[in-house]
Amino acid sequence: DAEITQSPRHKITETGRQVTLACHQTWNHNNMFWYRQDLGHGLRLIHYSYGVQDTNKGEVSDGYSVSRSNTEDLPLTLESAASSQTSVYFCASSSNNQPQHFGDGTRLSIL
Amino acid sequence: AQKITQTQPGMFVQEKEAVTLDCTYDTSDPSYGLFWYKQPSSGEMIFLIYQGSYDQQNATEGRYSLNFQKARKSANLVISASQLGDSAMYFCAITPRWGSGGSNYKLTFGKGTLLTVNP
């Protein structure tokens, strides 16, 4: 079955380090998204992509970057991790005019 | 810009009863899509149901239905015959220009309602 997978599921790192969270989908969806979930804020959009070589900033993009070199993957990079980026991160994908489907999330702790 | 308001931080329902989770939205776009997601305690986000603003009929998916009242800008989720496994956080979300071409497909979420089903 087609799916969307995130790795790692849990990560602990230190402030100032570069961190990359992986997202891989096998649905051949054009659209991919990264969200973060924090208590009291629901889910907020970090970056998104509508296809290969396309990336766009979302609501809370500062300190994050993405790249889309193929259809299946949209890795999220924290250039220099900060404690404020401790959160649960969700990747999602969709085809046009279809609901987004989410990965299981990555719990990231920055000490 | 779009905004979703979920006014019920928590709701309780008895098993086998129906429950309505409230969602109101604000958008200036003439067409939009409204979505509900379920997040159980295990953490994953599960898509439940969606409604396009131009859809004439309210959406239904099994025990889930979306009570869409366009004039009131509300898109409430109705769960019939609640089950213990329905205990979870529920999120309402909106995307602009849904189905009309030019949609950006970005979701704006509400803060969620925690539903507890009592036996």
Provide a concise account of the structure shown:
The complex is a heterodimer of chains A (about 110) and B (about 120). Chain A has about 110 residues and is mainly beta.
Helix segment tally of chain B: 0
Roughly what percent helix of chain B? under 10%
H/E element order of chain A = EEEEEEEEEEE
Low-pLDDT runs of chain B? none
Helix content of chain A: under 10%
Distance, first to last CA of chain B:
41 Å
Mean pLDDT of chain B: 93
Mean pLDDT across residues of chain A:
95
- Using the alpha-carbon principal axes, give the shape of chain A: globular
Describe this structure in words.
The complex is a heterodimer of chains A (about 110) and B (about 120). Chain A contains no helices and 11 strands. Chain A is mostly beta strands. In chain A, the strands form 2 sheets. In chain A, strands 2, 4, 5, 6, 9, 10 and 11 form a 7-stranded mixed sheet that branches. In chain A, strands 1-3-8-7 form a 4-stranded antiparallel sheet, with no helix packed on it. In chain A, a hairpin with a 6-residue loop joins strand 9 and strand 10. Chain A is globular and about 40 Å long. The N and C termini of chain A lie far apart (about 35 Å). Chain B is mainly beta and about 120 residues long. Chain B is built from no helices and 12 strands. In chain B, the strands form 3 sheets. In chain B, strands 2, 5, 6, 10, 11 and 12 form a 6-stranded mixed sheet that branches. Chain B has a 4-stranded antiparallel sheet with strand order 3-9-8-7, with no helix packed on it. In chain B, a hairpin with a 6-residue loop joins strand 5 and strand 6. Chains A and B meet through strand 4, strand 5, strand 9 and strand 10 of A and strand 6 and strand 11 of B.
